[in-house]
Amino acid sequence: MCLLLVVLPGAFSADEPVQLSESFGGPHGTEFSDQASVAAGQTIGSITIRAGERVDGISLEVTGPKAATFSHGGSGGKANTLTLAKEEYITSMEAHWGEKKGRTRIFYLSFGTSAGNTVSGGSQTESKNTVTAPK
């Protein structure tokens, strides 16, 4: 499973601090969310997708008043990393999933940014969805 957590720049408030997308994937694996660890003022410094034929892991490095790294999955595959500029932020995520050995896996992930940069990894499949961050 993959869950996108969107924190809008300048829009972090007590009323609506985060917005969550739907989950992607299937009934196998473990759904995750780092929502409880997100703090006001944090921004994404880098995203790393580890992938070969399919996604093996993902890491988000956040900066701000409480720096942290959120990692999920394994350490296999090739690391594809995008370091974001100071005012750059995530605007979209595309996830593709499929079955391998009877279990649903995330095969491909791609993130787009406000500066037009992207980072991706894995193999695209027919089962996919794209989430765009609200403006």
What are its keywords?
135 residues, mainly beta, Jacalin-like_lectin_dom, Jacalin-like_lectin_dom_sf, Jacalin-type lectin domain-containing protein
Description:
- InterPro entries: Jacalin-like_lectin_dom, Jacalin-like_lectin_dom_sf.
- This is Jacalin-type lectin domain-containing protein.
- It comes from Phytophthora nicotianae (Potato buckeye rot agent).
- The chain has 135 residues and is mostly beta strands.
- The chain has one domain: Aligned Prism (Vitelline Membrane Outer Layer Protein I, subunit A).
- The chain is 0% helix and 55% strand.
- A 4-stranded antiparallel sheet has the order 5-4-3-6, with no helix packed on it. The protein has a 4-stranded antiparallel sheet with strand order 9-8-7-10, with no helix packed on it.
- The chain is globular.
